[in-house]
């Protein structure tokens, strides 16, 4: 129990630290025409800066930088804020595409916040899972062009965000990406699996999911989990180059093609969202799953080996 309390404390402290980091880094950004949009002040969490949006209406795309320290873990509040922003993009007439990245060095996203699954309660768990489904439906089902600029580690839910985009560029470096759920003692949901199959194929997914494989950036490129590698300093430039190429394609034809490719996968979840939520709650409430999550949390908090 004390581990959990201290995790909450550290996560809160991490957010504050990261907020400072973001305020500093804001001045360094070279994006020429940009509007900084903050989330609605009505939300209790709105005072935290959990992501930034740089919009370049002239060029027709935005850069969304995840900024929830320490590791961009996805909890209910963060997902809710993201969903509001994704909806804004979807409704925008000026924005054709979005580059999804992170302002936290070496971390794209650590995936779902494990604290949302540990000692899970029915109400919060349902809201959390519904918000996650919504994020995936909005991202994977978007008419807009999404390019993931993966600047660091991207396990599990972080990988899901990446593979829900249309194109992925990953920083060269000692970073890992993949659906590693089995290593936490849990099974990747069918829609995580299907998105992975659509990206890297059935056989590679079958191996990767059973093994909980976390790919290095080079391995990820070799199996098409990412489309391109870039030096960290060039990551956003490369993503912008790619975005310009995608933006030049006739919009309606591209949108229709995208939706025809993704419709069946999306429909499977949309047809059974409530059942999927209930199954998530029942599964995570099992004693064996709670035990696995506790052990995984403890392993995360062990002193890190220098070679890890
Ligand atoms: C039916 C159910 C299906 C559910 C599907 C599940 C999907 C998921 O996404 S589950 C989450 C899977 N995520 C992971 O396995 C990643 C775990 N994290 C890491 O491997 C590392 O943290 C890292 C590589 C992402 C970053 O490493 P590093 O820079 O060394 O940072 P730390 O490990 O020291 O982490 C800092 C701090 O953050 C805590 N933390 C890390 N990940 C999570 C997380 N996903 N949720 C909650 N908290 C997380 C970590 O414990 C550290 O806390 P303190 O030790 O208290 O500082």
From TrEMBL:
The lineage's top-level taxon is Eukaryota
Q: Catalyses which reaction?
A: (2E)-tetradecenoyl-CoA = (3Z)-tetradecenoyl-CoA; (3Z)-decenoyl-CoA = (2E)-decenoyl-CoA; (3Z)-dodecenoyl-CoA = (2E)-dodecenoyl-CoA; (3Z)-octenoyl-CoA = (2E)-octenoyl-CoA
NAD is among the record's keywords? no
- CDD domains named in the record: crotonase-like (cd06558)
Pathway membership, UniProt: Lipid metabolism; fatty acid beta-oxidation
Q: Which Gene3D superfamilies match?
A: 2-enoyl-CoA Hydratase, Chain A, domain 1, 6.10.250.170
Where's it mainly located? mitochondrion
- Provide this UniProt record's keywords sorted from A to Z: Acetylation, Fatty acid metabolism, Isomerase, Lipid metabolism, Mitochondrion, Transit peptide
InterPro entries on file: ClpP/crotonase-like_dom_sf, Enoyl-CoA_hyd/isom_CS, Enoyl-CoA_hydra/iso
Give the GO molecular function terms: delta(3)-delta(2)-enoyl-CoA isomerase activity
Location comes to: Mitochondrion matrix
Q: Give GO BP annotations, semicolon-separated.
A: fatty acid beta-oxidation
A single Gene Ontology CC annotation of this entry is: mitochondrial matrix
- Subunit-structure text: Homotrimer.
Q: What does this protein do?
A: Key enzyme of fatty acid beta-oxidation. Able to isomerize both 3-cis (3Z) and 3-trans (3E) double bonds into the 2-trans (2E) form in a range of enoyl-CoA species, with a preference for (3Z)-enoyl-CoAs over (3E)-enoyl-CoAs. The catalytic efficiency of this enzyme is not affected by the fatty acyl chain length.
- Which family is it part of? Belongs to the enoyl-CoA hydratase/isomerase family.
Q: What is this protein called?
A: Enoyl-CoA delta isomerase 1, mitochondrial
Q: Which organism is this entry from?
A: Brachionus plicatilis (Marine rotifer)
| Upper taxonomic lineage | Eukaryota, Metazoa, Spiralia, Gnathifera, Rotifera
């Amino acid at each position: 129990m004390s581990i959990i309390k201290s995790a909450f404390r550290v996560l809160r402290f991490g957010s504050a630290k990261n907020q400072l980091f973001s305020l500093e880094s804001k001045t360094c950004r070279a994006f020429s025409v940009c509007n900084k949009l903050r989330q609605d002040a009505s939300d209790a969490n709105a005072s935290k800066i959990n992501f930034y949006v740089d919009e370049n209406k002239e060029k027709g795309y935005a850069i969304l930088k995840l900024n929830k320290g320490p590791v961009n873990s996805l909890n209910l509040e963060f997902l809710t804020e993201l969903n509001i922003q994704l909806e804004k993009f979807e409704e925008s007439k000026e924005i054709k595409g979005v580059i999804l990245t992170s302002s936290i060095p070496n971390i794209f996203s650590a995936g779902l916040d494990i604290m949302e699954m540990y000692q899970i309660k029915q109400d919060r768990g349902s809201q959390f899972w519904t918000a996650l489904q919504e994020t995936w439906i909005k991202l994977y089902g978007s008419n807009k062009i999404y390019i993931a600029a993966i600047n660091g580690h991207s396990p599990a839910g972080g990988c899901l965000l990446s593979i829900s985009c249309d194109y992925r560029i990953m920083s060269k470096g000692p970073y890992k990406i993949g659906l590693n759920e089995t290593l936490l003692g849990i099974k990747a949901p069918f829609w995580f699996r299907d998105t992975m199959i659509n990206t890297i194929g059935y056989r590679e997914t079958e191996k990767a999911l059973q093994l909980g494989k976390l790919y290095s950036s080079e391995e990820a490129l070799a199996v098409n989990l990412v489309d391109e590698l870039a030096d960290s300093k060039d990551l956003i430039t490369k993503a912008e180059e790619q975005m310009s190429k995608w933006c030049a394609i006739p919009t309606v034809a591209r949108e229709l093609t995208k939706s025809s490719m993704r419709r069946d996968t999306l429909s499977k979840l949309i047809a059974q969202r409530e059942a999927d939520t209930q199954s998530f709650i029942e599964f995570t409430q099992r004693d064996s799953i709670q035990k696995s999550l506790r052990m995984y949390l403890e392993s995360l908090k062990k002193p890190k080996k220098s070679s890890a």
